[in-house]
Write a structure and sequence with these properties.
about 220 residues, mainly alpha, about 0% strand
Length: about 220
């Protein structure tokens, strides 16, 4: 209760610029929650045992078995499934396209965090300028000078601190999610290259992937 009272008091002293900053902070929290849920769901869909089974079958030229192994929500196996479904045309291109779509989803709405990181300090700076300008209006009045000038400076400092605080709080999860996307990109590239090598190994032993026809759903 005491903390909330202090926050409300500082919010009121920060001036009208605090309202758009509060909106930015709310949007940032929504995006962060959305990204946390997305990554948690992605992690829960990964099945390492099924991936190993699919890779082993692909390397041995057992494409039917590999296809059945992809009947799961695992994003890597879904990537292989796209490749197998286009075995007669361009499996590598199909897997790369699937990977790019997945990476695009992993970066969804991160532009909001990026915007907040840039915009919040600028709004804080705007509040600073407005607060100091308001203080100068009372410099010539001896009776109101001390109170009004100190109030204007307080408004300026609070707005600046709020803008910087929001930017800092958004910067940490933004970099975290960008790092997660970078790691996912590397894993997908490794997965696709490995699958390509396994298909080449199967072809060397007389099992050409281009001869495989994916069963119709």
């Amino acid at each position: 209760m005491i903390l909330s009272h202090i926050l409300v008091e500082y919010f009121e002293k920060g001036g009208p610029i605090m309202w758009p900053m509060a909106l930015l902070f709310f949007l940032a929290l929504c995006v962060i929650l959305d990204r946390v849920v997305w990554w948690m769901k992605l992690r829960s869909r990964i099945h390492l045992a099924a991936q190993e089974t699919a890779r082993e079958a692909l390397g041995l030229g057992e494409f039917e078995k590999a296809w059945k192994s992809t009947e799961t929500s695992d994003p890597f196996l879904q990537n292989l499934r796209d490749g197998l479904s286009h075995a007669a045309t361009s499996p590598l291109a199909a897997m790369q396209l699937h990977a790019s779509n997945l990476l695009e989803k992993s970066e969804a709405r991160l532009w909001v965090l990026s915007t907040v990181i840039t915009l919040a300090p600028l709004l804080g700076l705007l509040g600073t300028v407005v607060g100091i300008m308001g203080s100068f209006n009372f410099v010539g009045n001896d009776q109101l000078a001390v109170t009004k000038v100190s109030g204007g400076i307080a408004e300026a400092l609070i707005a600046t601190a709020a803008g910087l605080g929001i930017a800092i709080l958004c910067l940490l999860p933004f970099n975290f999610f960008r790092k997660k996307t970078s790691l996912l990109r590397g894993k997908l590239e490794h997965w696709i290259n490995h699958c390509e090598l396994l298909a080449g190994n199967a072809k060397a032993h007389g099992h050409d992937l281009s001869d495989f026809k994916a069963p119709r759903p």
